[in-house]
Amino acid sequence: MNHQDLTNIAREHGSPVYVYDAEVIIAQYERLVSAFAKAKQLRVHYAVKALSNISILKLFKQLGAGLDTVSLQEVELGLVAGVDPKMIIYTPNGVSLEEIEKVAAKGVQINIDNLSILEQFGSKHPDVPVCVRINPHVMAGGNANISVGHIDSKFGISIHQIPHLLRIVENTGMNVNGVHMHTGSDILDIGVFLYATEVLFETAAKFKDLEFIDFGSGFKVPYKEGDVSTDIEELGEQLSERFNKFCDDYGKDIALAFEPGKFLVSEAGHFIAQVNVVKQTTSTVFAGIDSGFNHLIRPMLYGSYHGIKNISNPEGRQRFYSVVGYICETDTFAQNRQIAEITEGDLLAFSNAGAYCFSMASNYNSRYRPAEVLWHNGKSHVIRKRETMKDILKNQEVVELELATELAE
Ligand SMILES: *Cc1c(COP(=O)(O)O)cnc(C)c1O
Question: Residue 272 in 3-state DSSP?
């Protein structure tokens, strides 16, 4: 998509607006599939939480992907999108047994990440095959908040508890059909990741009826020029070979599974906002936009970097700006960033806005959540309308309390 396409969409649908380029999603999906072409069997489950619009889920279904879900509601969205429940894996953390049972009743693949629930579920439903989430205690993450494989993590069943896990499986007579790990976001070092997979292979060999091994996700995508990202092709080459050898030793061809979110949708997304005010202080030039962390929270939450281009003046002289939102607390998208000269009314395009942007948006400050537009073959399709005051009021019940007369003055 070029600047003109993005500008036209913002003019037509208003700002702020999220725009997703379907071709980029398709290209990333195909890149992943070809990287693992040598693996005996590959299953890609798109992580719904990254971007959960039903039209996006439908696109993944058309591409042949399954879904990775973390809540009953994500499962239901997948079913609304027409995805076969057998193509959905449910990997919750800390949810109730009741929720897991509801999802299992829909025919979705269950992935359990603690021994307490595993024992309860296995005792009640020994016929439902489950996958177990293992914590290999390997830290592959980029940011302390998003690494989930290390020793203090709340995720997964520790490899030190495998004997206990095996006893539960034996006592309940349940069937473990998959083993899983998700060592955290932002895999930079393939060596570290492959080391974690060795731990998982070792664990997998202890189960007799596996259908798949799920290596989770955490592929890193580039945010700016020169950024290091996961070398998917190299990882695909090495892991496929190692996986096929595992299948030979195991005596059965099982599937190699992944569940990427960010890798598949991050770069496809653009967030377009308009500059309301340019404000010069003694030390800084602020560009204040018609949005805030209510629409895109990643910079404030994780310190994430999003590229920002002035698409109304792309060739303008480069100047330094702090790009800020309209929320009434610190609300900074970028500090001291070089951007082509900004005039009030200009449109700014934020890159890497496909993953964890709209899906984390809120109505804070009672603002509407933006529209979402899917771009394909030179055409834009609105896949979610901008909210209105109706949405803000939707579930509110108006109660007027009867106060004591002296208070009600
Ligand atoms: C969030 C999540 C993913 C996706 O992670 P990305 O970094 O977006 O690829 C995959 N698996 C599980 C279990 C997750 O919680």
Answer: strand
